[in-house]
Amino acid sequence: MALDMFETRFREELEAIGPFPQIPDVSPDQQRAARHIDFPAWVAIFDALTSLDHVRGYRLPSFDQFLSACEDSYVTKYVGPRHGESSKKSPNRFYRYFDRQSPLWSAVQSRLAGFYLSGIAEAHLYIALVDAIEDRSRCGIVLKDPRVDWKLKVDIAVIVPTEGSFHNFLISEYANQDKDRGQIESARLTVELQRKARTLGSSQIPLQPMLKSFHHIAVSLDKDKADVVGGVSIFSYPALNQILEQIYVTAGITGWLFP
Questions:
Q1: Which pLDDT band, with edges at 50, 70 and 90, does 191 fall under?
Q2: Which residues of 32-43 are buried (b: 16+ CB within 10 A; e: fewer)?
Q3: Which residues does 245 contact at the CB level (< 8 Å), separation at least 6?
Q4: 160-189: b or e for each residue (b if 16 or more CB lie within 10 Å)?
Q5: Quick check: 97 and 37 in contact, CB under 8 A?
Q6: Which residue, 57, 135, 138, 147, has most beta carbons within 10 Å?
Q7: Helix (H, G, I), strand (E, B), or coil: what is residue 83?
Q8: Which residues pair with 110 in a beta bridge?
């Protein structure tokens, strides 16, 4: 991920975006309908925006920028079927969902807002770990990119070398899903294995046993672990330190913590 700033700068830039816009309330039926829209992976769009804003002066993308980029990617500049794709992947595939007069528009806004808020939370966790582990402690490296998210279902990877070995951590960030997380990850893997039926050369399938040997850390952005900046929830300093301490203790090292 090309986002590179100190954690304090992240908070300043998030505040500078302005208050998070009010998303219209949607009914449960609308929410269910929106959840069944198979939007292409949003992580690449969000990370692309952070890369652009990085070179534009260390900025963060606003929700309006993200919404516009999603519409641009899914509708305006979608190239259509090729390589044997089905007709459902036509340029008009998502057009109706971005129709401002559609009864689903509010639900689509709500779902894209969820993507954006998750992207901000993951980006903040990433730069906070970089700040602590790479810049302050200088004891490891922190990695995040869309391909790893798609292929290995990992939000952030941390590698901490110690004498004679490496400690590899895979971090998954989510919100308020403690009870369902196992079922969610199992369902995601089932879907991905089905999608890989025609591409068995992909490393995703044979890598699964190896990934089980890594240290897995699941972190939830619950209200008691969050700070709200500009109307957006990010991890609080105590929550960040709890994650860092878990990494340091497992690796058998001493590292820097947020004051």
A1: low
A2: ebbeeeebeebb
A3: 257
A4: beeeeeebbbbbbbbbeeeeeeeeebeeee
A5: yes
A6: 135
A7: coil
A8: none
Over 50: is that where the pLDDT of 178 sits?
no
> Global pTM?
0.86
- Alpha-carbon distance 36 to 29, whole Å? 11
Q: How far apart are CA 167 and CA 215, in angstroms?
A: 8
Q: Is the distance from CB of 146 to CB of 41 less than 8 angstroms?
A: yes
The CB-side HSE value for 101 (13 A sphere, CA atoms) comes to: 0
Q: For residues 37 and 89, what is the distance between their CA atoms, to the nearest angstrom?
A: 12
Query: Is pLDDT of 204 > 60?
Result: no
Lookup result for tokens 């609080």: 236
Q: Are 140 and 158 in contact (CB under 8 A)?
A: yes
Query: Cα separation of 190 and 175, whole Å?
Result: 22
- Which backbone phi and psi does 116 adopt, to 5 degrees? -65, -45
What would the DSSP string read from start to end of 137-195? I-S-EEE--HHHHHHH--SEEEEEEETTEEEEEEEEEESS-TTTHHHHHHHHHHHHHHH
Token pair, residue 18, equals 């302005």
Tokens representing 179 are 């009870």
Neighbours of 246 (CB within 10 A): 15
The continuous run of DSSP H or E covering 232 comes out as: strand 232-235
Kindly provide the b/e burial profile for residues 55-81, where b requires at least 16 CB atoms within 10 angstroms of the residue's own CB: eeeebbbbbebbbebbbebbbeebeee
80: its two tokens = 């259509």
